[in-house]
Here is the input.
Amino acid sequence: MISVQNIIQDLEGLIQELEQSLDQASSFQELEKIRVEYLGRKGRLAQVMSRLPELGKEERPVAGKKANEVKQKLFELFEGKKEAIEQEKNQIDLATFDPTIPGRNPDVGSLHPITRVIEDICSVFIGLGYDVVSGPEVENDFYNFEALNIPPEHPARDMQDTLYISDKILLRTHTSPLQVRTMLKRKPPVAAVAPGKVYRRDSDLTHTPMFHQIEGFLVDTRVSMADLRGTLTAFLHRIFGPKTRVRFRPSFFPFTEPSAEVDISCVMCGGKGKIDGQTCRVCKETGWVEILGCGMIDPAVFAMVDYDPEKYSGFAFGLGVERIAMLKYGIGDLRMFFDNDIRFLQQFV
Amino acid sequence: MLLSLNWLREFTPYEGSIEELAAKLTMLGLEVEEIIEPFAHLAGIVVGHVLECKPHPNSDHLSLCRVDVGEEVLPIVCGAPNVASGQKVPVALVGTTMPAGFKIKKAKIRGEISQGMICSETELELGTDSSGIMVLDDNLKPGIPLVSALGLDEYVFDIGVTPNRADCLSVLGLAREVATSFDLPLNLPEFDLVEDAGLDCAREVEIIIDDPDLCPLYQARILTGCQIKQSPAWMRYRLMAVGIRPINNIVDVTNYVLMELGQPQHAFDRELLAGQIIRVARAKQGMEIVTLDDQVRKLEDSDLLIWDAEKPVALAGIMGGANSEIKQDSTEVLLECAIFNPPTIRKTARRLGLSSEASFRFERGVDQVGSAYALDRATYLMATLSGGKVAKGVAKAEPRPFVSCQINFRPKRASEYLALDVDETFCARTLTKLGCVVEENGDVWQVTPPSYRLDLEREVDLIEEVGRVYGLDKIPAHLPRISKSLDDENIDYNYDFTLKVKKWACGLGLQEAINYSFVGTQDLDLLGIAEQGRVLICNPLTEEQNVLRPELLPGLLQTLKINIGQGHKRLRLFEVAHTFIQDQESDTETRENNRLGILLYGQRHASHWPFKDEEVDYTDIKGLVDHFVQVFRCTPVQFKLAEEHPYLNPCVICESGDGKKLGFIGRLKPELAKPYKAKSAVWCADFDLDLVQKTYQSQEVKFKNIPRFPVVRRDMTIVAPLTLRFAQVTEVIEKLNIPILESVVLVDIYQPEGASEKNLSLRLTYRHPERTLKDKEVNKAHQKIGEAVLENLDVRFP
Here is the structure.
């Protein structure tokens, strides 16, 4: 006959033994072995428990109670150790975690700097209420020249060396035909900008046969030169910063009168003409850089689109996108734009 | 236009700084592009006085001189035969860099010390005389710089004169502007022309003008007994300063007066002119003339010529003929001073590629009223410099006398338009100063511009003048309120859409390229692109840029080539641009098509862990296209293998639901990879954005309720021949039109190497929108699909 004391002794002995075993365990595998040994279906605890029916009826509840207490305790010890090992493992994992390995990164795309500058400029004008319009790159002589007050054999044609498809069909030399095309379609008030490719028969260090322009124009009643200056000043401040100074200089375009060239204080030297005592290579010491051409739309253009010049007035401006991109990003060589070397392209993300 | 500051000062006494003058001219619309110092190479050359000159002890042709150069007396060895004591000579001091590039050093020449060099005209680039040293005026003080000793034009402005300001293509015209803006007097050169009453010019020559529109005025003077020689130094140096090569005293005068007064003139050797007639008439088609530069010029019947009684003697307004040129032995001169029709001159000059100082001015318009003065001025100078006698009077025909226009001008309109505070007094004063006759007459004035301002024709031209003189830079800034209507039917969405596509591509890790719109026909030929429909440029810069791109790939492949040439091994490019095809229906005879091009080359992923080394294949480009058609609402689309394509193999056509060709995908044929230096497959796509944009804009996003009931997924694996296309399977299933079938997805293709069959694993998803599906109905549907697949396709189940 076994006694209650024996059973209790065995049960309490289990606690001590388990503690000892757990002390030596350091991995989940060892822990699992211990679990099977003590707490498994045929483990040490189960073996002791299996002897309970051998006790007398009155002794069983005492032993049963004790058995449950011990079982509880064993589980606690076991779980405690398991947590400790887990914690230790987490610490080791963290210590060996390398946050600097390369990720499974998707490729980084880029937009051509010309696209970027066109978007920057157009969004300023969209914000001011302008539409963005587009048109063909192969143009008629009429839209490109005649309707813009440049008749055949006019010396102003020298200002733009033209690539021809045939006698009367050419690659547009500026985005100004969009003035005419848009005004023919709409009645004033009209406010639009027209970005796009333009072409000239010219290729050297500072000219490429294809480049980009943005034309902008506003026609309404009582539009004056002050509106032109206000619009361009606001726009140039947005693109080059609020400290940029803007200068109007008389010039000539057949389709505007008066016409002006607009200069801004040099973006490189801030208009000082010198950097650390050296001549600024961007403005060549003048402190100014030419940025765009503009003027009040010539009445001759209005006559072509059937707008009454006594009732309406308007302004127009045209700017070279490459020039602005070169100033804005500090690109020195114009031809880089169309070489498309990916070392160039990938900088514009 | 090159303007010498000294020359300008002869016309108006400007005494301010060069910088201020340059800034003023620029702000008047006469942009000073550069300030040139034409004789900068003479810095370091001073006047020397040869105190002593004796033969070199060790040479029979060298002289040993002692030269006073102001501060000191230098020993100089000189090899010129004409050097003599007492002369004033130009001396290059030690340290001077000569125009030819060498530097003067202290030297020992055959044992004698030489500290400097006495120079000849050629060595100073002041002329062509290299026979000996230059001998200067005796009155010059030793030590002063040669530039000031000779009174050379030290500063010359290079002014960008806009095409409208023909009047500013002369010293006189620019002096008028300077005088106006600095409020200075304008002084015209005064001279006393002495005529020889013995010879009456009008009797000697008759002027006949065939077409008055082409030549409103022709006048000529005659000089006799001229001696042709070199012009005096002051004239030669001045012409050199403004970039004109001196020739002889007669020709130099015509050039001098051209620069001075803006009136081109031409001198004929009168003895070489036949008869006593000068005729202005058109050329005959196909005839030839030899011009002064000894070039044979083939003429057309639109060209205007000057004829004597027998033959053409000059290309009117452009260049004289070789047959009547002033030569060393000429003595009789007929000096022409005429006005020609600008477009006629321009057309001929352009066609012949022969732009001269004369044609440049005639194209832009020359002052008809001022021409008589210019003729007299040139005649006077010629007579003075050549010792010739001037025949009495002028031979002249003026079938179209100049008529000045009268312009209505409203001062109020000017101040409104310019937004400048320009009052009536300012307007009147400015216009008057510019040479206009102003009749102030209430609100509307009558203004008559001067004959030299051919650009002033309308009120707005006068407004510009008022603004220009007041200062356009003083215009205030005011941001206008734009009141245009929003419901415009003509809204242009191209920009928005194109930008959206570009951002899509950028977001997918592609890099945007921008190529020229033109390529060479040889590029298109190489790719086998049809010759028909090509849009050719008739005056291309180079053969590599003589045709507009009918497709985007020829350009993108150039980008590929350049980048591979730079050692790049992996490219993911896109471009959005127009392509061009002939189209007689279009008003520009060209159909432009906005397109998207994509090019993939090299490794699929960046070459780093955890990616594997794999080259891009069809699934990469196809995946981009699948994404594209979904984002831009073009689904459903069909992909069909094209039977043939000039440069792609395979080439897959992507069609919209209604059968329109949205674009194509493919791999550059391997035999074409080599010319572009590609070492592995090049995959590309080319899509019609105009069509995609139309589809996109016609599709509104419509919300569908999110289904609440669970799905049932069933897989189906079929064993199929290698030729079976996935779309054939989906077509069969779609035809069954099973309402509870939500989707069919290809989850695996298993095709062991060398096998004659492949396994396609499909995952079919079933769902009912309003209730939970029962197993039985799913089984039924799934079975139906299985049967249909077996029945319609050459496949089996494993």
